[in-house]
Design goal:
This protein is of the alpha/beta class. It contains 20 helices and 14 strands. The protein binds one RNA strand through helix 2, helix 3, strand 9, strand 10 and helix 13.
RNA sequence: GCCCCUGUAGCUCAAUGGACAGAGCACCAGCCUUCUAAGCUGUUGGUUCCGAGUUCGAAUCUCGGCGGGGGCGCCA
């Protein structure tokens, strides 16, 4: 589909032709099927296309096909329609091929129109009309007292990109994060810190955060049963575990000492987390802390019992549950039964998520709620959404779990318990190191004081693109060389297209704010046509990525656009154009390409540097 | 037992039920005196896991297998 809001001229042509097709069909006793228009899938040719297979199939089904095979009949109709259409304003030529009707645009008008639209809209080129709907994206839910690893980077990048996309597409967007700042894992670290490291504190935000992870790994080793352990070892382990449980009890009872210990170490983790969000250019609107939703969440359980949705089995020694399948009248087990409160009255993950969902709807007035959480929790979220439905929230149907596969290592799953993790900060540092090495040999024209900053942009661009260009529900086996590759289908490839465009404009001293009127009254090369077509696709790519909640769609688009630009760059001289009009036109096209590349990179949370 | 995800080129991955299943990496052959070679051009590479079905048309939808991963009342 072509963008009808940004480029109404395309829509006009389409509608004119559709009307004529119906006219022809009515006159010849043909019942036309619904016409679907798609871009012509041949590189260097710019137009829109529809087919008559469905129409021919309908005829055959109605017994009117006089035994002509469907593809052949579709081609007949296409040819006849083509004959009936004759010339159409704005169309260079029409052809009937293999049952398809291909409508080629006359390029000069549209090239100018597209380029001017981009240059005048600038950062807003491709922005959708306001949709009058509020959407909350919840992502980046790290546990505190651990360090931020490369798996957290995936959800953060996925969520941030999605938030940017839906916001740009026209939704009122709220970014939310939900750090897990309490739980047995957190207490384990508190216990070990207090017992073995009290008073110590490494310098540096990231060093301090990573140190907590190291403590966790050590503590886990002390608390896990070993094979062939001696009675002494067993006794010691059980004593440690008792200390840990006692500490959890004290935390619950608001013991001042434990609470202060918790508060201080928690802040160390949050310092690191905030710094990483800053590095990734992420600004959260709402922070939900697990420790803060814990108490209030218990109230909703009572409400669900009162309304007959939940059943209280505590008198019989059981927990509070919701028999979802039964409530929905399902005979086969699908959503099963969800436990929403422990027998001892303490809350569960489910308790808190139900309370959070309610809060999102009632306090933040969200119409849609997206959860960017790993795929292992898909049943959990299906259950939560179904309970919201039973609860009577119409927004339940617009809750969506954007699940993603794990980032694993070649040697298996990451495991904080075993200390087998790839930390984001280490990858980040390595990325910068590698980019600087490339820069020193290839980029002589970057001022010394900008090298570091640009290296960060390129390094993160490589990492972000490697995460976003894979379908979210696939696992990623993390490979440093692959994630930080700068060649081929990568972030730096797209960034480089932006740099090259900038380089031309800079040399020509082109001012996008005050362009010379561009006229494309010459025969465009196929590279120019392809580039213009890719640019014109951007608004639709935004809408598609937003509607499907799939940043990958934008990642794919950005590459296609950069690819078209690189080919254009190589084949078409700009500064050395034959005459002044052509030079101006091409400069405008380069400026439009640069802007569109920058806009699409922004939606992927990737910077667009001017030099690299 | 039930549910979810997944299987496409040597590898990593794309492909609103439509034109010849496409990219990148790797391999091979070219292209820097010309707007940045982090690039471009070309070559090689396929029983889309298997089998049925629906359809004019299936990688895509349905059913049945096989392989891989995950989940299933008091972990998060």
């Amino acid at each position: 589909m072509l963008p009808d809001i940004i480029f109404p001229m395309f829509k006009d042509i389409q509608q004119t032709i559709e009307a004529k097709i119906r006219e022809y069909c009515a006159a010849h006793d043909i019942a036309p099927a619904e016409l679907k228009w798609t871009p012509i899938p041949f590189s260097g040719e710019w137009g829109t296309s529809t087919s008559f297979f469905q129409t021919a199939a309908n005829e055959a089904r109605a017994g009117k096909g006089n035994k002509v095979p469907v593809p052949q009949r579709a081609q007949e109709i296409a040819e006849q329609v083509k004959g009936h259409l004759g010339g159409v304003e704005g169309v260079s030529h029409i052809e009937a091929v293999k049952g398809y009707l291909n409508v080629y645009f006359r390029t000069s008008d549209y090239a100018r129109r597209v380029v001017e639209e981009v240059i005048s809209s600038k950062k807003d080129f491709g922005r959708g009309e306001p949709k009058d709907e509020r959407i909350m994206v919840e992502y980046a839910q790290p546990n505190t007292h651990h360090s931020f690893h490369i798996g957290h980077a995936r959800t953060t990048l996925l969520g941030e990109s999605l938030a940017r996309i839906v916001e740009f597409a026209g939704f009122d967007t709220i970014r939310a994060t939900y750090p897990g700042d309490i739980g047995l894992g957190v207490i384990t670290i508190l216990w070990a810190y207090d017992k073995f490291y009290k008073g110590q504190e490494p310098d540096g935000i990231h060093e301090r955060g990573q140190w907590l992870l190291k403590i966790y790994t050590e503590a886990t080793a002390l608390l896990e049963p070993k094979e062939n352990e001696t009675p002494e070892e067993k006794a010691r382990r059980e004593a440690y575990d008792a200390e840990r449980r006692e500490m959890y009890r004290k935390w619950d009872a608001h013991d001042p000492y434990v609470r202060e210990l918790w508060r201080v170490t928690r802040e160390w983790s949050l310092d690191e987390f905030r710094d990483i969000l800053r590095m990734l250019d992420v600004t959260m609107d709402v922070w939900f802390y697990e420790s803060e939703v814990d108490e209030p969440s218990k109230a909703i359980v009572e409400e669900l019992i009162q309304r007959g949705i939940a059943e209280d089995e505590r008198p019989q020694g059981g927990p509070v549950i919701v028999k979802i399948d039964e409530k929905l009248g399902l005979t086969k087990e699908k959503y099963r039964t969800m436990v929403i409160l422990r027998n001892d009255g303490t809350s569960l993950y489910s308790t808190k998520d139900l309370a959070l969902a309610k809060q999102k709807i009632e306090q933040y007035h969200v119409d849609r709620s997206i959860y960017v959480v790993d795929f292992r929790q898909s049943l959990h979220f299906q259950q939560v959404f179904k309970i919201l439905e039973l609860w009577g929230f119409p927004q339940a149907s617009k809750c969506y779990h954007l699940s993603y596969g794990y980032v694993t290592l070649p040697e298996g799953a990451m495991s904080a318990r075993r200390g087998r993790v790839v930390l984001f900060k280490n990858v980040y540092d390595e990325a910068i190191k590698r980019v600087l090495a490339v820069e020193s040999e290839r980029s002589g024209n970057i001022p010394e004081n900008q090298r570091e900053a640009i290296a960060k942009q390129i390094g993160l661009g490589a990492l972000a693109y490697s995460m976003l260009s894979v379908d979210n529900n696939k696992d990623i086996v993390f490979d440093m060389d692959e994630a930080l590759s700068f060649d081929g289908r990568t972030g730096p490839y797209i960034q480089n297209a932006h740099v090259r465009a900038n380089s031309i404009l800079k040399k020509a001293n082109f001012q996008p704010s005050n362009p010379q009127p561009a006229t494309f009254d010459y025969e465009l090369t196929k590279h120019e046509i392809e580039l213009i077509e890719q640019i014109s696709r951007f608004p639709d790519a935004v809408q598609q990525a937003a509607n499907e909640y799939r940043p990958m769609v934008m990642a794919q688009y950005a590459y296609d656009l950069a690819d078209a630009f690189h080919s254009f760059y190589h084949a078409v001289p700009v500064l050395q154009s034959e005459d002044e009009d052509m030079r101006n036109a091409r400069l405008s096209l380069v400026a439009a390409a640069k802007q569109t590349i920058a806009n699409s990179l922004r939606l992927l949370d990737i910077q667009a540097p001017d030099v690299m």
